[in-house]
Amino acid sequence: MKAIYKTLVMAALFAVPHMLGAQDGHNQTVVVTNKFSFNSSVGEKSQIEMASPDSLNIFEKNFSYEVFDKPYSGAYEFHPYNLNLKPVSGTVDGRQFWMNVGAGYNLYPEFDLVYEPVRGNKCAFGVFARHRSFVGDYRKVAADADGLLIQTRNADGKREYWGGWNYDMDNEAGLNFSYDWARTGLSLTAAYKGLQQRDWLSVRSLDQAVADLKVYSKRPSSKVINYAAYLSYRFGRDNIQSAPGNAVLFQHNMRFGFDFTANMKKKGCFSLYAGADVALYSNALNHTALVVEFLPQYVWQQGPWYVKAGLRLDIPVTTDGVENWNGGSSFSQYAYPDVEVSYECRNIPLNIYLNVTGGEQLRNYASLVEDRRHFSLFSRSATLQADREGKSAITGPVLKNEVERVNAEFGLRGSIRSVFSYNLSVSYAEKASLALEAIDFAALTLRTGEDASDVPYYSIGYANAGQLNARAEAEYSDDWGTVGLKLLYTDLYLRNDAPQSYVLPAALTGNLDIRFNIMKRLHFGLGCEFSTPMQVHCGSATVQDFKLPAYGDPYLSAGYICNNMISVWIKANRFTGQTIYSTPLYSERGPKIIAGLSLSF
């Protein structure tokens, strides 16, 4: 009875405030995707991090409640997006409202809200909110005789779990504003982003305030001159209370840039992007870092040929004498290719393309935490060493820049009779300071006691590596629904064998997805996401390598559109009892079954 009461209290605490005040690579949970239509202005810029998805900046929605693009992505990650949108021309003033709410076993509350009270040809204003969370137990894991990390069992043969109030929550709320003048447009987003976590070792609260501004020209592309200016600011505070120690980190991150385009008509198009990414950290980490970027490009298109030739210049700068920071001076090459060549076959719908790119990316602490859940400034081995020496348990380096020296991709994409589409590609990249998930353990022993030092600790490490990818995507789509298949082969060649226990990517991952559409009202979906084992490379001849097990996780979904305002849906996965890791060492308990309601008017 006490357990039931505590569950209800937690549900109220986590769900109600977000329903009143209050979408999403590697991490794993179910997600319902929502399709939005929008117009983009000028061009996309991957350099500018934004607070909200593009899909939330324009509110013309076409919902698909049963979609499982990646059943394990979405609830535990948030990638920043570009805000380069303007209101759709020809729209009239009116109210648009959309809300999605759901929950189930093991709780897994989720909530989405989009409301735009003002929308016209020139001005638009809206608010949005989002909540995803897991509340429940994590499985206890240990290595068997073959080095496979599996769930532990007690003397009675029952599975063991880390009890207590374990949770992992994503919260977001903000507003969008846009205004169009005759030749210029402005868009603004301001938002709060929160990441709250608790597990058997630590409690975290990462709170961020984000503001994004863009000013751009509205002239047609046929005009000679176009421009866009970007500005993004993020303030974050990460408060970590951990068994190894406590830490508070403050982050100020600002990105700004300017994009200039000159159309020379038949001679092609010339563009120049110039910008910078600045990061300032204090308390737990103390340093300032900067990456300045210049990207001149020339684009030429004639008949079936498309050619883009550019040279990216990335210049890293950082404060000197900081132990926890490596600005990349030993890895940076400063100049990187940015080339794309494609040929469109005229007799058949087939495009053949070749891309050669590269660049240096400033490591952003908040994004690192969002992408790699449960990452901490502490590690078990560093904590034991710090205890002996009486020093801080914070370890480094933790924020190395990632440098992609070169990335070459060759592929072809096309369609057959408008119902079958495909995309096949192979790529190879040389990377320096590639961030890899790691398991930090001197001995893999999980005990039922309270001594946290006996627990292997999830962390990250850096490696120089070559990465080979082969991708195959195919989809058949007709009036009755779609069948899609995605396959990815990955091979990582480590250039340095450090003593860290790197978690290497699975050699083969994939997703088979089937969706049925009955009378455009009733939707069904089923599929399976699968992965081969992931190797835990210890980099030492004296330490055994471990493996995260392979899995094949089927999922189901159903949705019913009651009318033009109300829809209901249900989705389920993880009902085979497999140990599937959302993050290495972190496997959530039990099946996942969520039911929900969507309103739109």
Write a concise keyword list for the protein shown above:
601 residues, mainly beta, 31 strands, globular
Description:
With 601 residues, the protein is mainly β. Helix content is 6%, strand content 57%. The protein has helices at residues 2-20, 365-371, 380-389; strands at residues 34-37, 39-40, 60-63, 85-86, 96-105, 107-119, 123-139, 141-143, 149-151, 161-180, 184-198, 202-217, 225-242, 246-263, 269-283, 287-302, 305-318, 335-345, 350-361, 402-416, 420-440, 457-478, 481-494, 502-503, 508-518, 522-531, 534-537, 546-548, 551-561, 566-573, 592-600. It has a 22-stranded antiparallel beta barrel. A hairpin with a 4-residue loop joins strand 18 and strand 19 (350-361). The protein is globular. The protein starts with a helix and ends with a strand.
Instruction: Specify the helix fraction band.
Output: under 10%
Residue windows where pLDDT falls under 50 for at least 5 positions: 1-94, 321-329, 380-391, 443-453
Radius of gyration: 25 Å
Largest sheet: 22 strands, antiparallel, barrel
Give the gist of this structure.
The chain has 601 residues and is mainly beta. 6% of the residues lie in helices and 57% in strands.
Topology diagram in text:
Blueprint: H1 2-20, E1 34-37, E2 39-40, E3 60-63, E4 85-86, E5 96-105, E6 107-119, E7 123-139, E8 141-143, E9 149-151, E10 161-180, E11 184-198, E12 202-217, E13 225-242, E14 246-263, E15 269-283, E16 287-302, E17 305-318, E18 335-345, E19 350-361, H2 365-371, H3 380-389, E20 402-416, E21 420-440, E22 457-478, E23 481-494, E24 502-503, E25 508-518, E26 522-531, E27 534-537, E28 546-548, E29 551-561, E30 566-573, E31 592-600
Antiparallel strand pairs: 1-3, 2-4, 5-6, 5-31, 6-7, 7-10, 8-9, 10-11, 11-12, 12-13, 13-14, 14-15, 15-16, 16-17, 17-18, 18-19, 19-20, 20-21, 21-22, 22-23, 23-25, 24-27, 25-26, 26-29, 27-28, 29-30, 30-31
